[in-house]
Amino acid sequence: MSADLDVASRDLASPYRVASWAVVTTFILSLIGLGLSAYLTYEHFQPTFQGCAFATGVINCQKVTTSGESHILGIPVAILGLANYVVMVALNSPWAWRARARWIHVARFVLAIASMCFVLWLIYAEVEIIGAICLYCTGVHVVTFALLIVLTIVCPTQLGWSRSRAS
Fold first, then answer.
1. Which of 17, 102, 126, 161 is the most buried (most CB within 10 A)?
2. What pLDDT does residue 62 have?
3. Does a structural domain hold residue 1?
4. Which residues are within 8 A (CB) of 89 and not within 5 positions of it... i.e. 6 or more apart?
5. Within a domain: residue 167?
6. DSSP annotation of 76
7. Residue 82: enclosing H or E segment and its boundaries?
8. Which H or E run includes 106?
9. CATH number of the domain that 90 lies in?
């Protein structure tokens, strides 16, 4: 009877398995990104940015979070970041990593790529257009980059997209 249970549990296991370090790392990074994004969303709706000790010069969270570039199509960038990380926490949860549905694993990787593209635009906006950097935004950017690196290591192989295929 236990042999039957072993076979059944193997049949229920996801065919898209990865190393446990990747599951833990992506989940923790997603939680950190969620925390930073939640804080930036909270601060976005405050009269002044309280969390940044530097209010002038190159490091100026207030200037960045209230600039014209802090909205895309009328939506605050902070809310977009929060929504992104709510989805990333779900997609990088241990339960999602065990999912059998291929679209979940593809969505995780595609969202990480799209997020990094958006981050590159935000960095350009901070440096070239606004002329100031937000430390909390930079934290989100670093987390997004780290997530992309980890997912780039594990996802192509996990999804069967690697160049070398065994025959």
1. 126
2. 87
3. no
4. 27, 30, 31, 34
5. no
6. E
7. helix 77-91
8. helix 102-124
9. 1.20.1440.130
3-state SS assignment for residue 148: helix
- Residue 153: inside a domain, yes or no? yes
Cα distances (angstroms) measured from residue 74 to each of 61, 79, 80, 114, 124: 20, 11, 11, 20, 19
| Residue 18 identity | V
Question: Is residue 7 assigned to a domain?
Answer: no
- CA dist 127 and 137 (Å) reads 12
List, for residues 120-152, the tens digit of each pLDDT value.
999 999 999 999 999 999 999 999 999 999 999
Structure tokens at 21: 């370090």
Range of the domain at 75: 21-158
pLDDT score of 5: 38
Q: What percent of the chain has pLDDT over 90?
A: 62
Per the structure, how many domains does the chain have?
A: 1
What pLDDT is recorded for position 3? 46
| Ranges in the chain, pLDDT < 50 | 1-11, 165-167
Report pLDDT for 18: 80
